[in-house]
Amino acid sequence: MWDIFDGMVVGNILTSSSYIVTFENLLIGYLAAYIFYVLNDYLPRIKRKENSLRLLNSCIASVVDSYSRTRVYGHETALPYVDTSCLDPEWLRKHISVLKLNKAEPLKLKFALDTAHTRTNDFNSLLQIAVEISPEHAEKWLVVIDKVRLLAENYGEMPTVPDDQAHLVQARDPKVATHLFFSDLEFRLMELMEATLEWLALEKNS
Question: What is the average pLDDT across 188-200?
């Protein structure tokens, strides 16, 4: 204790045994409350958030991975088994650039479309989980939902191609009716990837 308080009422109070006992009890109570908070609220909340983000990311990755690996049965893969490694910001930026060139492989775009169509209801159902994380996550998830919906709206709209022009589809020949269809898919998938980057950045900055 500072010398200035020596012999004063304040000094006597601070050095009294009753004050010391009271302070120790308060400190023990505070530490106990803090430990209780960490074990029963903070750590479980962090674990719930990690599990929620894992589920939400798996839903986004199901669409992106169908494009990335040209997965024929990507739309049938259960969310717990979806590979989320495609949610790499650098990879996403790279393929956004590819999509802007209108030269993506038609099969990649078709399989991404199939998965988006299959998962549309899943994206909508998972909104409540995003809401429980934070209002910011809910807002970004609504954007993701919108981009998936716009992509899925193209399902079943692919134009019929005459047999003698089938070989031109893969070549993305502008003269073929499917060229504009796949260009629309590229734009919608590009929007989804951009929304995914914003979603990933939200978690990185939080």
Answer: 97
Asked if residue 105 has pLDDT above 60, the reply is yes
Describe the chain by its helix, strand, coil percentages, rounded to 5: 80, 0, 20
Query: How many CA atoms, within 13 angstroms, populate the side-chain half-sphere of residue 131?
Result: 7
- In this predicted model, what pLDDT tens digit does every residue of 142-177 receive, in sequence order? 999 999 999 999 999 888 777 667 666 676 777 777
**Angle subtended by helix axes 135-152 and 178-205, to nearest 10:** 170
Packing angle, helices 43-68 and 89-100, rounded to 10: 30
pTM as predicted:
0.80
Q: How far is CA 38 from CA 26, 27, 49, 75, in A?
A: 18, 16, 15, 40
The answer to whether residues 167 and 101 touch, using CB atoms and an 8 Å cutoff, is: no
